[in-house]
Design goal:
This protein is mostly helical. The chain has helices at about 5-15, 20-45, 50-60, 65-85, 90-105, 115-130, 140-145. The chain has one domain (about 20-145). About 80% of the residues lie in helices and about 0% in strands. It starts with a helix and ends with a helix.
């Protein structure tokens, strides 16, 4: 075995070590995103009159009356955030928050460039969770093992 092939073998063995951090990274993403959306949902619920004002005069959610849009947004932010933290129906939760995030960008015409970038970052992170699915540290993983 040549020196070059040994170095290549060591490299490829070592390059798999970060994969052991994948569940930690997944959990970190889930906690980070859930915190953002859950706090937003709490704000909506705690000042419901302000929320209704915003949904009727500032945000222009297509196809939905303001009261329905506000209720759906608050419920989705609170409920889907909890599911995301638990890793229960995680892809469903990530998809729901992704759609909510997209509707927020579409509905608020005066969103600054910084706000758009923030929503874009959240969308990308939610997309990662949606595509990569459940991790070892999720209820989905345990349920799937139990059911199969």
């Amino acid at each position: 075995m040549t020196l070059l092939s040994r170095l290549a073998r060591y490299y490829y063995t070592a390059s798999h070590l970060p994969e052991y951090l994948a569940p930690l990274m997944d959990m970190g993403l889930r906690l980070y995103l859930a915190n953002i959306f859950f706090k937003s949902g709490l704000t909506k619920v705690q000042s419901w009159d302000s929320t209704l004002y915003l949904f009727s005069d500032v945000y222009h959610v297509p196809l939905l009356p303001p009261e329905v849009a506000a209720t759906l947004a608050a419920g989705a932010e609170l409920g889907l955030s909890v599911l995301l933290v638990l890793g229960l129906f995680g892809r469903f939760a990530a998809a729901g928050l992704f759609i909510l995030n997209l509707v927020a960008v579409i509905s608020y015409a005066d969103l600054s460039e910084a706000g758009i970038n923030q929503h874009l970052s959240w969308g990308i992170l939610l997309g990662v969770l949606l595509i990569l699915g459940r991790s070892k540290w999720s209820i989905d993983n345990r349920l799937e093992k139990r059911l199969s």
